[in-house]
Amino acid sequence: MKTNVKVLDCTIRDGGLVNNWDFDVDFVRDLYDSLNAAGVDYMEIGYKNSPKLVDTEGVGPWRFCEDDFIREVIPEKKNTKLSAIVDIGRVEVDDILPCEESSIDLIRVACYLKDIDKAIDLVEAFNKLGYETSINIMAVSNSLGLGLNEALKKVNESPVDMAYIVDSYGSLYNKDIQYLIETFKKYAPNKKLGIHTHNNLQMAFSNTIFSYEQGVEFLDTSIFGMGRGAGNCPTELILGYLNSTKYDVRPILRVIENRLLPLREKLEWGYNTAYAITGLFNEHPRSAIAIRKSNAKNNFLGFYDKLSSVETHEDIK
Ligand SMILES: C[C@H](O)CC(=O)C(=O)O
Question: Which residues does the UniProt record annotate as the domain Pyruvate carboxyltransferase (predicted)?
Fold first, then answer.
């Protein structure tokens, strides 16, 4: 195994997009203890958005990750570090405590390419507060070309620690990942790279291990693949692939049995033809998620035809 690799489990954060972050405290504690026992490097415990800037109705506490609350949930941090993500325009920098007063070690800034300057401003603020930082360029499959190169040059000049390739739509193949890694390495050579994949085309695991083999150091995963739509690269598969004494898959298998399987009986995530269709069209999975919640949940051909027709496409986006 390459010694610099880090596994970052984002079950609570990306899985929260499936259940509105409605995980109980025991569930999250058990996940933390299991990830720690498995040797996983980071657990992403949620979003650190401001309740003043997002709708709080029916949304669990992992959407906000308030410091006092996180300290109550995990009073004793072990080896596994904690991360939280923020969205542009949904975080109040003045509410973020200095890192030494918080349980969070890493703040990741999620942004679309157009907001790269705002992301860098946030990173500068969090860096001054003592956090590790990353910039996660979402929907990168829609952002190839000169704009990406220019953005990466700015990222390279910024104090950010990691630059992440984020396949939000799950529409990338190994050859696309190869191109992106080369581009990120060319224009942001000073930064560590990370990869976050979705499984719409059944490529999440393949693209993650491909990235690892190409020198990407931060690998995002989630237990049992729990994440929005088709879900993410399963933590258990990556630990198996890395096959190192540093990691132990057994605690993850236990938590799948005890925690994830009961949840999967109530909620849907993971590969499904509807998500494959948005992946094929390189689109956000929201229309597929809506279809899966409707009476037409298995009308895949109708959904495909709608997405491929100019007349009907816009109304379901
Ligand atoms: C920045 C995050 O990785 C957001 C996310 O999960 C996405 O797929 O986009």
Answer: 5-257
